[in-house]
Amino acid sequence: MAGIDKAAIGFSIAIVAIGVAFAMYGDAAQNQGYVATPTTSKPMAVIPEEPKAQTDPFADIADKVKENPKEVMKEVEEVVEEIGETIKEETEKHAPGPETYTVEMPAGTSVPGCEETNACYLPADIIIFAGDTVEWVNVDTAAHTVTGGSPADGPSGVFDSSLVMGGASYSFTFNDAGSYDYFCMVHPWMVGSVTVN
């Protein structure tokens, strides 16, 4: 019986050794680029592939820099300048110019109530860029004003439409960055603001 146990232990060790060998082979094949493609049922010898020579795509540039660094730097500066000019041209082509934004003075704003929903000017608060224009269009039947300042502090003197009759409009171009409050002098509950970036 002792002989059978020794044989079983030996056989088990052999199987484990074979398993470890296959695991090591698989790991080596994966890491070293070995390829074994059996085409028959006979065992085949595994032949490692020749490692592929890797070429440095920048080797010729490095050689050129070593030979004449000033010339290479001049070429690089020319390319950078050309790229910069291209970017500038494309930006100028597609850069938005000054724009005009419309703000409505809605119908019914001559009676208090629009201030509760901040709808006396639509939109009541607008964000624009320096150089842009805001056009206020009166779609109400009553006359309104667009006066820089606030009801509490009075007119700022920056802009004032005077009376804008129903169906008429008033425009102002904001050249300087800042925040500009405005209101209607006839109906002081009507307030709005323009933020200029």
TrEMBL record:
Gene3D superfamilies to which the protein is assigned, alphabetical = Cupredoxins - blue copper proteins (2.60.40.420)
Q: Which Pfam families match?
A: Copper-bind
Instruction: List the source organism.
Output: Nitrosopumilus piranensis
- The name of this protein is Blue (Type1) copper domain-containing protein
Q: Which InterPro entries match?
A: Amicyanin/Pseudoazurin, BlueCu_1, Cupredoxin, ET_Amicyanin
Q: List the subcellular locations.
A: Periplasm
What's the record's note on cofactor binding? Binds 1 copper ion per subunit.
**A cellular component annotation (GO) from this entry:** periplasmic space
Which positions are annotated as binding Cu cation?
144, 184, 187, 190
GO molecular function terms listed in the Swiss-Prot or TrEMBL record: copper ion binding; electron transfer activity
Task: List each copy of the Blue (type 1) copper domain by range.
Answer: 116-197
Q: Which UniProt keywords apply?
A: Copper, Electron transport, Membrane, Metal-binding, Periplasm, Transmembrane, Transmembrane helix, Transport
List where the protein spans the membrane. 7-25
Show the coiled coil region(s): none
Cofactor section: Cu cation
